[in-house]
Amino acid sequence: MDNAGEFNPIEPIPHDLLREPLIWFFAEHYRHRDVCARLSDLSRSIVFDDVALRDVYVFLDRDLPLHVIDEEDDLFPLLRRRCEPDDQIEKVLGMLSAEHANDMMDATAVKALVARALAEQSGLASFAEARSTIEPFCQQQKRHIAMENAVVLPIARHRLNEADLISLGQRLAARRGLGDPFKSAP
User: DSSP secondary-structure letter at 3?
Assistant: First the structure.
């Protein structure tokens, strides 16, 4: 929030970070935390904030599903191919994949609540179920992101080679309709 009590827009990730896809994921996780902080604040307010609610809605509708696909279709399979048995990554990835399915169901409920607030031009706290819908989602997101930042990304940094990272960056860019981030690299 800025000094006037209004939310700044959710910060987009600079496209040149796709040249460093593991940093891209870390930055994306930061955005998830930011959205959760916004949702928590919004869930305690009866004031209608059209811009903040629309920003959160777009994130839940577009960015979160893309992020899950990024991990499920690209990052996790790469790790499964590159990790050693001693890394014991399969247990972690299996748990995170199961959480992704739950995250998307919970995100659908949160998104529906945000859509309702937008349609009725009401603050989220106007709805009795706001806190009970939003807080568990946000707590799960924070725990999930902490596991990915503390376990998955450090192992990926250790196990993925340069070709893996280039391919990963290219796939992330293509999914977003962007050109090859490595062709414009100096």
Answer: T
Least Cα distance to 106 among 32, 17, 163 occurs for: 32
* Burial (CB count <10 Å: 0-12, 13-18, 19+), residue 166: middle
pLDDT of residue 164: 97
Rounded to the nearest 10°, the torsion over CA 3, 112, 12, 152 is 110
Residue 10's pLDDT is 87
Q: What is the pLDDT of residue 8?
A: 81
Residues of the chain with pLDDT under 50: 1-5, 185
Q: If DSSP codes are grouped into helix, strand and coil, which group holds residue 128? A: coil
What's the whole-model pTM score?
A: 0.89
With DSSP H G I counted as helix, E B as strand and the rest as coil, what are the percentages for the chain, rounded to 5? Answer: 75, 0, 25
Output the 3-class SS for 6-74: CCCCCCCCCHHHHHCHHHHHHHHHHHHHHHHHHHHHHHCCCCCCHHHHHHHHHHHHHHHHHHHHHHHHH
Q: What is the pLDDT of residues 156-179, one digit of tens each?
A: 999 999 999 999 999 999 999 998
Rounded Cα gap, residues 99 and 104, in angstroms: 9
